[in-house]
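Sharing a chain and its predicted structure for anyone who wants a worked example. Both blocks are below, sequence first, tokens second.
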Amino acid sequence: MARNNLSLIKLKIRILKNKILWYFCEIKSKLSNKKVIDSELIIPNSDLKNILILAPHADDEWIGCSQVISNAEESTVYYFNFLGKNYHPENEKTRLKEIEQVSEKTDFKLIVSTNRENHSDLKELISKNNFSAIFIPFPLDWHPEHIKVNDIAIEIFKELDLSLPLYFYHVSVPIPESMRNCYYLPLSKKEKKNKVKIFDNCYISQKNTPIRRFAIQNVIWAQGQSFYAAEVFAKCSLLEWELFLNFVKEQKNEIEKSIYLIDYPFKIREYSDKVFLKFNT
């Protein structure tokens, strides 16, 4: 009992500390004139006609691609049904119900993986649909299941010899500011609040996942711009993706340390750029 109480106290202290930190990070970004994205590189409407988002976990699609879902003519989310460290059947039902609620609220088509070790259904989905773009979780990430999705997807894409636009979306570690071909979709202050609200209302089991930590990254991306916040995506070729994914695997032990920086918005951005610079040298 005493141990549980101590854990709860530590969690509450962390939440309070982060609220204060993120509040000042938001102020700092709004006072800055430094532009970190090119305002001309908004994702073109042609890429938003019929999109596919690959989501390792229920909530990744909303954290990384809420504005893709909101702006696309048609949206499909392929949910891998990965559950991190909790593969209890009850948790699986809970997470599925939550992503189904988001699907209903935001009007995307949800496809749930039927087999965690065989993704022939994903291959069939891609081959039978004329997707205008596919969104993939950014592989520079401490979470092994985000990397696993990259491994699965890249093999399928190579087999299908895809030539359609591919975009990385950010979940845990931000896209490096120095990465070329960084496209974006803007959010107003109201849209940013709505993103947080939908997450809070639907992903009840993830109440300890601080959606505001992700939202503050959206605000930082928009510093020096006329819009309030932005979701940012790195456009890449199949070859660029393969090279970067191999590099990430080589740097696995180093990249896993990024988990200790996730609560510090500017520090984890510096870290992301540092790792990407290493890839480029």
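Comments welcome. The mean pLDDT is 93.
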